[in-house]
Amino acid sequence: AKSSGRNCYRFFHASMLEKLEAKKLVISDLRQALKNDELELFYQPIYNIETRKIDKAEALIRWHHPAKGVISPQDFIPIAEENGLIVELGNWVLQNAIANVRVFRQNLCPEFCVNINVSAAQLKPEDNWLSELILSLDTANLGANAIAIEITETALMTDRKKVVEDLRLLKEKGVEIAIDDFGVGYSSLSYLQQLKIDIIKIDKSFVQQLGIDSAGTTLCKTIAQMAKNLNIKVVAEGIEDEIQLEMLTEFGCHFGQGYFIAKPAQAKKFETFFHSFKPA
Ligand code: C2E
Ligand code: CA
Ligand code: CA
Ligand code: CA
Fold first, then answer.
1. ipTM of the complex, rounded to two decimals
2. Percent of the chain with pLDDT over 90
């Protein structure tokens, strides 16, 4: 474009303001949503390839906006993280996941575990969110293996010392820690050992390259091999077809998650799926 730099600047400026306004709107709507019960946790099964059973599921938040319909977490979680509302949202997720896992343990299997996603912004030292987690499990009379947390590599890099300490405590208590979107971040791998990480989740961007791109295939294979050597379990996420599941099984992945097994669904629907599930 031949437009002057000045015009470009103006345009840029206006859209920044618009974005800011849009974000403010999301935040005020989200506060309403928390009050008005517009949020819901969906569940996606995590299939245990070794036992061919489902004894875990990931909780994924959905927002039923009264005017805008269903809003994807990608469109509000990052804004809530910036604003700090994520702390309240994170507590909502925890309390609801605990309520649901109690039902799953009654109706599905006594050892059932729900994975919840935890943002870096929830792990600020002053919030002590992780001790809250332990306390909530105790209050609900649940063992530490009822809830596992999923956290990204980037989250581990913010305020490392405190996060490392807290996660060590969680581990001591017996709460499993999974590294989400593994391979996408840029951190060193030393934390895998330092934190005695239990699980890594191979990012779906790699899984979706299986059989299509040889570098992507090699990455999946290498991650699985490395994890095996370090005694870490692997979840492959974003499995969309049988071939991908077969390849990942061959590579030694322990768990599979993706639309091929089931899409995230409401808790009741997830229970129905669980009861009708037959491994291939
Ligand atoms: P994530 O934790 O990496 O979750 C996996 C995402 O992949 C989910 O998107 C899931 O619906 C989607 N997915 C699962 N299987 C497949 C598949 O086979 N193919 C494809 N293309 N996608 C698949 P979703 O539910 O839209 O969530 C997006 C992200 O939002 C999550 O990514 C997570 O980072 C964040 N998120 C969701 N719920 C929460 C929450 O309760 N708290 C926090 N802090 N973040 C959340
Ligand atoms: Ca996740
Ligand atoms: Ca992920
Ligand atoms: Ca992600």
1. 0.98
2. 72
